[in-house]
Design goal:
single chain, 419 residues, Nucleotidyltransferase, domain 5, 3 domains, 5-stranded mixed β-sheet
Length: 419
C-alpha cells in the first residue's frame, strides 16, 4: 500500500474519522457500495466519492463487480484489499507448535504443525517457531507482514508481551517474546494467553462480535478466556481467567505452580494421569485398559477411553468435570455469560465430561444467570487458535491503532505503540 496522502499522523480530524470509518465498513462487509456508505454514514454523495477515492489511492479499497440495479445504473461494489498484507500467527502449547499465515480478512492461507516441549525454553523454542514461519512465507505471496500474534500456555502481561510466572514454561518468566519477532519481521507483535486466542476463534466461528462468552480449556492444565461484549477481558495484569490455580476446598494436592490444592492439581489432565497411574499401581483399576498396551497414559487417552466406556477413565473424567463445573459456576454467577465453550483434551470425552459440568453449573449458579445459558463442546478444530490470533491482530490493527498508522499505509512497531 502506498503512503502518498495529505493525511498525516497527528490529530484525528473529521476527514480522517470518516475515512477510517468507511474503510472499516467495507472491510467488515457492512457496506459494499458508495450509496450504502452514504446511507449508513449520513455523508453527502460528493464527500463519499472523495473519501472512497482517497481510500483507493491509499490502497485500502478497490473496485469490485457491479451490484444489483434498483432501476438506474448498477452501482460498482467496493472491496477491502485483504491480499495486500499478511498476518503471522504462532500458537504455542505445552507439547506443540502451530504456525499459520492469514490474509487481512483473517483467512488462513497456510499452516504447519510440529510436536515440541515448550519447557525447552524461549530461545530454542522461538528459533524453531521462526524457522517454521520462514518456511510458510516461502510458500505464500510475497507481501508485507502487517502483524504477528503469539499465543502461549500461561499468563501474559499484554502490554509488555512477556509471560508472567507461567507454571509449565520454565525460563519464560519476563522473557521479551515480542522483541525477536519485531526485529525479524519488522511488524507489530502481540503476545497473549492461548485460551484468549481460542475464545476469539470461537467468536469468529459464531460471527458474534458482541458475545458474552467463556472458553474453558481443560487439557494438561486449565484456563479460561473471557469475552465481554466481544472483547477479551484480561484484567489489570493479564491474569483474568486463570482458574486453574483457584483453591479447591479440602484439597492438599501439590500443584506445578508450587501451591497446594489448585484446581489444576485436582482436575487437570496431568492430575488425571497421576491418579490413573496411582490406581493402576495400587491394583484398584478394575477392568480398565488404561496403560495395558505399554504406552504412556495421556490426558487425551483418558478422555478417549472414557468415551469408549472404560470404568476407571469414566470415574476420573466425571470427578474432573464435577470440580471444574463448580469453578465455572462461580464464573457464571460473577460474569453472567451467554455461552460456555468447553475445549481441550478433556473435551474429547464428549457428553461424559459435559453432562457433569452442566449439572454442577446449573445446581450451583443463580437461576437468572443460567436462564439463557448454553454450555457446549468446542468444535475441536485445530485451526481455532490460528483464527483467533488473526482476529486479535485485526482488532488491534483496525479498531485500536488504525488512526495512528493508516496514513503511512502499513503498520510498524513504532506506529502502533503508545509511548
Amino acid at each position: 500500500m502506498t503512503s502518498e496522502s495529505t493525511l498525516r499522523f497527528g490529530a484525528q480530524t473529521d476527514e480522517v474519522t470518516s475515512l477510517l470509518r468507511i474503510v472499516n465498513l467495507v472491510r467488515t462487509g457492512e457496506v459494499t457500495t458508495r450509496p450504502e456508505i452514504g446511507r449508513v454514514t449520513g455523508l453527502g454523495r460528493g464527500v463519499v466519492t472523495q473519501r472512497v477515492d482517497q481510500a483507493i489511492q491509499m490502497g485500502y479499497l478497490g473496485d469490485g463487480v457491479f451490484g444489483a440495479s434498483s432501476g438506474g445504473r448498477a452501482p460498482r461494489t467496493l472491496r477491502f484489499r485483504a491480499e495486500q498484507g499478511r498476518i503471522i500467527i504462532c500458537a504455542l502449547g505445552a507439547l506443540h507448535i502451530r504456525v499459520g499465515i492469514a490474509n487481512l480478512d483473517g483467512e488462513i492461507l497456510d499452516e504447519t504443525h510440529q510436536y515440541w516441549e515448550i519447557a525447552r525454553g524461549p530461545q530454542e523454542t522461538l528459533e524453531v517457531v521462526m524457522t517454521r514461519i520462514d518456511e510458510l512465507l516461502d510458500r505464500v505471496a510475497k507481501v508485507p507482514t502487517w502483524g504477528v500474534v503469539v499465543g502461549v500456555p500461561g499468563p501474559v502481561d499484554f502490554e509488555s508481551g512477556s509471560p508472567v510466572a507461567p507454571p509449565i514454561m520454565p525460563g519464560w518468566n519476563g522473557f521479551d517474546v515480542r522483541g525477536p519477532f519485531e526485529r525479524r519481521y519488522s511488524a507489530p507483535v502481540w503476545v497473549d494467553n492461548d485460551v484468549n486466542l481460542l475464545a476469539l476463534g470461537e467468536r469468529a466461528r459464531r460471527r458474534d462480535v458482541n458475545a458474552d462468552l467463556i472458553y474453558c480449556k481443560v487439557g494438561s492444565g486449565i484456563g479460561a478466556g473471557l469475552l465481554s461484549q466481544g472483547r477479551i477481558h484480561r484484567g489489570a495484569n493479564g491474569a483474568a481467567g486463570d482458574i486453574g490455580h483457584v483453591k479447591v476446598a479440602g484439597s492438599n494436592a501439590a500443584c506445578r505452580c508450587g501451591k497446594i490444592g489448585c484446581l489444576e492439581a485436582v482436575a487437570g489432565g496431568w492430575a488425571l494421569v497421576r491418579d490413573a497411574e496411582t490406581a493402576i499401581h495400587e491394583g484398584t483399576a478394575g477392568a480398565s485398559a488404561l496403560g495395558s498396551n505399554g504406552k504412556a497414559i495421556t490426558p487425551e487417552g483418558i478422555a478417549r477411553a472414557a468415551e469408549d466406556g472404560d470404568p476407571l477413565a469414566i470415574t476420573l473424567i466425571q470427578k474432573s468435570a464435577r470440580v471444574i463445573g463448580e469453578s465455572i459456576a462461580a464464573l457464571v454467577n460473577l460474569f453472567n455469560p451467554g455461552v460456555i465453550v468447553i475445549g481441550g483434551a478433556m473435551a474429547a470425552a464428549g457428553e461424559v465430561f459435559l453432562a457433569e459440568v452442566r449439572q454442577r453449573v446449573y445446581e450451583l449458579s443463580l437461576p437468572l444467570a443460567t436462564r439463557d445459558l448454553s454450555i457446549v463442546l468446542s468444535v475441536n478444530d485445530a485451526r481455532e487458535p490460528l483464527r483467533g490470533g488473526a482476529e486479535l491482530a485485526l482488532a488491534q490493527l483496525f479498531e485500536v491503532t488504525f488512526p495512528r498508522w493508516f496514513a503511512e499505509g502499513l503498520p510498524s512497531p513504532r506506529s502502533v505503540t503508545v509511548n
